[in-house]
Specification:
295 residues; alpha/beta; seven-stranded mixed sheet; two-stranded antiparallel ribbon; 11 helices
């Protein structure tokens, strides 16, 4: 069944031109939001708690815009299976890749942090062909082996290496002559809250994974945030901002807080483009003992 879906439905759909895919997106919006209300309760809850000062009408407007964008992401994600390198570069442009060049020239690997904001999947495809560093991304394999192989192949076809954390650490320790750019999703819900950094994010107590900062300190890697901006339907741009390249100036947790604040600023400016259907606040600080940070 998985092969039939992939070869007879997904791949032919992926080869359709964008204007047809966006027509499909409009139909999906009607059914997903208007008819079935996919995760509408969760989305409304997340929005209401994140923006307590907004009126019900304002929340509804953001919610409506989110579902339209969400359906666009669905068809754009399908398109990613067959999108060409030229089209990927044209639709996702890195505005200032030269920010990374001084570190590359010094033989220094970097950490790039971002969130589930705008089209993060297209970033994974397009940015490796626009920077000098060798890109790696942390991922957890899908349970279904067929879809895991197809999705991983699609995401990595233009240079991105998809690795587990142990694979990334092994490369950083043993291939010191290589210059890597390691991608972290800064808004993932931490799996171990007792090792998370807690802060206020979108007006809620939030545990933020400390892994990016820990790796940056251990391997002396600058931390750079990537702001993903929607230019028009199906077109995006990424702007890099240096968070830290001298970690001694920061107390533990401050780097994590800094790049989380950067993402928060982007979300507040255009909230419809964040993944509000994600269960970001599954656990509370009181459930654990999170006052310890990873040394």
């Amino acid at each position: 069944m998985n092969k039939l879906v992939y070869y007879l439905l997904l791949l032919p759909t992926s080869r359709l031109p964008f204007f047809i895919l966006y027509g499909v997106s409009n139909v999906l919006y009607f059914f997903i939001y208007r008819i079935f209300g996919y995760r509408k309760t969760l989305v409304r809850k997340n929005l209401t708690r994140s923006f307590p000062n907004k009126s019900e009408a304002e929340i509804h407007k953001i919610e409506n815009a989110f579902y339209r964008h969400f359906c666009d992401l669905m068809v754009e994600g399908i398109k990613n299976f067959t999108i060409s390198e030229t089209a990927a570069r044209r639709r996702m442009k890195v505005v200032n890749p030269e920010l990374l060049d001084p570190y590359f020239n010094k033989g220094q690997s970097v950490i790039l942090v971002g969130g589930h904001y705008n089209n993060w999947e297209l970033v994974a495809l397009a940015f490796p062909i626009q920077i000098k560093h060798n890109p790696m991304a942390l991922y957890s394999p899908l349970k279904n082996e067929f879809w895991n192989e197809k999705v991983t192949k699609s995401r990595s076809k233009y240079g991105l290496q998809m690795l587990r954390i142990d694979g990334i650490l092994q490369k950083l320790k043993t291939q010191k002559e290589e210059k890597f750019a390691v991608i972290f999703g800064s808004d993932q819900s931490p799996t171990k809250l007792q090792l998370a950094h807690f802060m206020t994010f979108l007006n809620q107590e939030t545990g933020v994974a400390y892994g990016a900062e820990r790796m940056a300190r251990e391997f002396n890697m600058p931390v750079i945030a990537g702001s993903n901006i929607k230019v028009s339907r199906g077109h995006y741009k990424v702007i890099y901002t240096l968070i830290s390249d001298d970690h001694s100036q920061f107390e533990k947790g401050e780097i994590t807080a800094a790049f989380t604040r950067q993402l928060e600023k982007e979300i507040v400016s255009a909230p419809q483009y964040w993944l509000w259907s994600h269960r970001r606040w599954k656990h509370q600080k009181s459930e654990h003992q999170p006052d310890r940070l990873i040394p």
